[in-house]
Here is the input.
Amino acid sequence: MPTEFSSPIDAITRYCAVYGHPIKHSASPAMQNAGIAALSLNWRYLAFEVHPDNLAAAIAGAKAMKYVGLNLTVPHKLLALPMVDVLDDSAKTWGAVNTIRFESKNKNGMWVPIAEMPADEVSETRSHGFNTDADAITRSLKEDLGVNLKNASVLLLGAGGAGRVTALKLASEGVANLFLVNRTAQKAEDIAAEIRGKHPEISVIVGYPKTSVDLLLNATSLGLKASDPSPLDSTQFELKNARAVYDMIYRPAETLLLAAAKIAGCRTANGIGMLLYQGAKALELWSGKTAPVEIMRHVLEKNIYGQ
Ligand code: ATR
Here is the structure.
């Protein structure tokens, strides 16, 4: 499969993009353009710094220009919910939109991905919001860390946007025990109450476990900056009591938490897999083709590890 574009940009090149604020450290353009090239699509994937105040206008602009789709990252995933024309069940279930597919009506009046139609044949269009993050979390936990979530005990650090989706997804996968820890305890309590309502069979506790866990997962932003302390309070929980440790952060590739987890003998993985699988699913939603995951992974690792 080619990893470079076989043809230059021309007048029929189609576009997709990621919007974020900030965006400049995003690895998505490198990963997605590699996938696009490997599929021999005459597309390009761009990145734009979009202030939240301009998000609706930026989505409308992409729709008007017949972009095939968009990815949204911090802080747009919740803001976009009322800004798209239709919400897929994934976006409704997880309460966030990280992927938009633009769609057009075909000759039979059916909504199809806009990429399936030449731009000059497109008339009526709509934006369709999806969430590909939640499935990416569990795919990465299974494929990159070998964790079987059914009946597992999990300690989850963080109850922000990413923490909430992760907690709900873990619950839907049938974990037996979920321990939620967050600086602002009330946010963890709110998520615990939501899960108890939806999954009364799961034991959800706000606070550190007294026993060992199958998985410790960091969904806080602590670790993004070199000066950040570990998100784990080691006086409350010792890493040797976690079989596997996952850090959603991928830049830096090894946070303090992951380095300590390796020393403690835990299986470890960073958030590269999550980024990869959410992006691969987005590319599949836009193109209708199977994403070249290994090529995308290779380019992503090169972008992040600099090898
Ligand atoms: P995201 O969408 O990436 O989840 P977020 O919603 O802002 O971003 O959530 C950030 C998470 O990191 C939260 O769990 C936050 O804790 P609070 O809910 O108490 O804010 C956590 N976090 C950020 N900075 C932190 C810090 N200095 N110490 C502890 N937790 C921190």
Q: What stands out?
A: The first helix runs from residue 28 to 38.
